[in-house]
Amino acid sequence: MSGSRLSFIALIVLALVVTACGDTPPASEGVSQEPAASLDVDPAESEAPAESQAPEQPSEGRLALVRERGELICGVNGSLPGFSFLDSDGNNTGFDADFCRAVAAAVLGDSEAVDFRALSADQRGPALQTGEVDVLIRNTTWTVSRDTAWGLFAPTTFYDGQAIMVYADVGAETLEDLAGATICVQTGTTTELNLADAFSRIDVEIDTQTFADIDPTYQAYEEERCDAVTSDRSQLVARRTAFENPDDHVILDAVLSKEPLGPVAPLGDDEWFNVIKWVTLATIQAEEFGIDSTNVEESLNSDDPSVLRFLGVTPEGTDPFDSGLGLEPDWVVDVIGQVGNYAEIYDRNLGPGTPFDLERGLNSLWTNDPPGLLYAPPYR
Fold it and tell me: How far from the centroid of its chain's Cα atoms is residue 47's Cα?
């Protein structure tokens, strides 16, 4: 082949390479700070492609991104009393909201550096998959399909189970008593599938009314368009407190399912998942150690090497402990001092003295009598 022909071919190849590079769109650097759609948005609209800039995607990991931003974006329910709910002052309060604050305290040293994003049931998965939120802490059940497609579930913070609430004058005490009844249920949740499974197992026929969002579900029930409503037991208890006549409603004893609820971190970032996981575990371990917001500073002088390691204290003559989490050595002090241990978070939002008065039950430490399911691996 002649030299001139080789030169000609080389020029063609070079032109193609330059053209291909010129057609490649630049990577988006846009940062979306717009809040998620409100709960009353049409589900069809909420699933439509967003026209705004895509959520920021971390290049060095989400831990670095959150620190650079100076704020944690936490996906919550926003309308569930006891878990995440706007109080009269406009503050997001509740069990889930406080775990958002715990993560912010660990990462940023400030439990109030949180942007709470209210998400509907249908918006939860996409918010994680697109990176709109840094973490989802929104009464979300851990399932295999969600674990593989939505994000990684941190340790369970609330062990729940699905139940059914009925009007007391219906006279129902068991699932069998609901034969032929109409039950209100929210779509896009495990609740709808569990309901069908439970009544199929006992060969009892029911009618269902389905709703895309939770508020219309309970509205229909209150308007007596259905005989019963079903959801996680904790949610039923929370919603009943807001009814005009709470005593007119009874929650059946039957447990339809297992509902382990907890934080979810976006897929693909093990470092960030470890942070979410160990912040959750730290609140549990602190309770087991007897460390709370009132004595955490005093505990820095403990004689127990396990407590000192946990709180980031290096005894004289020993090497500093590196957790490998990428957090400050005393991050646990910030979490417990600003937010509290697990017991404090639970009691403040759901326990005695609240309208819900929920017993700890399975949400007790493994060392309690009777034992619960809360257990933290060694911090070492």
Answer: 20
Could you tell me the CA-to-CA distances from 132 to 91, 92, 369 in Å, in that order?
Answer: 21, 19, 42
CA distances from 183 to 44, 172, 194, 195 (A): 24, 13, 13, 9
Radius of gyration of the chain (CA): 25
Q: What is the pTM of this model?
A: 0.81
Q: Give residue for tokens 């630049």.
A: 26
As to burial, measured by CB atoms within 10 angstroms (0-12 exposed, 13-18 middle, 19+ buried), residue 102 is buried
Residue pLDDT, tens place only, 217-251: 999 999 999 999 999 999 999 999 989 999 999 99
Measure the CA–CA gap between 79 and 83, rounded to whole angstroms.
Answer: 8
Q: How many separate helices (H) and strands (E) can be counted in the chain?
A: 13, 15
String of DSSP letters for 119-158: --TTTHHHHHHTTS-SEE-SS-B--HHHHHHTEEE-S-SE
Residues 295 and 356: their CA atoms lie apart, in Å, by: 27
pLDDT digits (tens, 9 = 90+) for 105-160: 999 999 999 999 999 988 999 999 999 999 999 999 999 999 999 999 999 999 99
Cis peptide before 370 (omega within 30 of 0): yes
Q: Which residues contact 237 (CB under 8 A, 6 or more apart)?
A: 82, 251, 356, 358
Question: What residues form DSSP beta bridges with 159?
Answer: 260
The domains of the chain, with CATH numbers, are: 31-160+259-380 (3.40.190.10), 162-257 (3.40.190.10)
Print burial letters for 289-310: b (CB count within 10 Å at least 16), e (below 16): bebbeeebeebeebeeeebbbb
